[in-house]
């Protein structure tokens, strides 16, 4: 289950899903913004705020529900990563969590049994500061997750999206190479 960023379900998300499918994975890309896409972070964030976090989580849960019995791997880009994290930590059948460009708060008392988690994030990243990532890593460890973190020096926040100024071809290829290896182990 691959969730889009605050830009919406754009071509880069479909390209990523196709790349995963080409590697033999079944992939769903729900549209949490119901057809809306945005050209700027500010526009996307305004839409996210207007829609509301609870509504977006509800849409994500409804999208994942038909497949969750199979044991999903949750994945997402930035905002979508935070949604994927929330769902994976609440789904006892989750097989893994792939976070691209984002993390989220962790609810108190959450526990998982060795959930494989891989995070890919720019260094530095204005949305994922070093202090935040350190605290997040420690909290994820306390949940029982098995966490790997990969940082990409000099890359922009959404460096895997070839249609955005943040794009970094070298970092994107390294991310996909490592992420596909991770997915092959699940």
UniProtKB/TrEMBL annotation:
GO terms for molecular function: hydrolase activity. Keywords: Hydrolase. Pfam families: DLH (PF01738). Residues 2-185 form the Dienelactone hydrolase domain. Gene3D superfamilies: alpha/beta hydrolase. PANTHER family: ALPHA_BETA-HYDROLASES SUPERFAMILY PROTEIN, CARBOXYMETHYLENEBUTENOLIDASE-RELATED. This is Dienelactone hydrolase family protein. It comes from Streptomyces levis. The lineage of its organism: Bacteria, Bacillati, Actinomycetota, Actinomycetes, Kitasatosporales.
